[in-house]
Amino acid sequence: MTSDQAAPEGYQTPPFPIDEGFSAQLGPFYVRDTDDKILLKFFATSDHANPGGALHAGVLASFASNLMMLPSLKATGGAKCSLISLNTDFLSGGKLEQWVDGWSHITRQTKDVLFVQAELSQVHNSGDRRMLMTASGLVKIIGS
What we know:
The protein is mostly beta strands.
């Protein structure tokens, strides 16, 4: 999938392959790393629509899955990881032809499991930020 949207200011293409396989159907993605969380964006197009013409909930869940892997890979130095649990709460319908913003961070880490939280939102044309979804997940550290 492609989008005519350029990378937003302060964002860049992820430094590792996140736009391959199924994930390529969602992107392109743009990332910004801050001290306490990872920010990720994609531009929602008609390819992300449900039959009613709104942003498909499955797209948001898939985006959250990708989003949760970013701090996991950072925390493990790039070790192989796998999302083993994903819990989502859909809070509002998403709009097409707008950016979807996500952030995620690790809340707890054990020897081989990371506890990760994420939030997805959009800034609508009115300038108001609307929370679309919250998610929590478990990421299994498999190894290098």
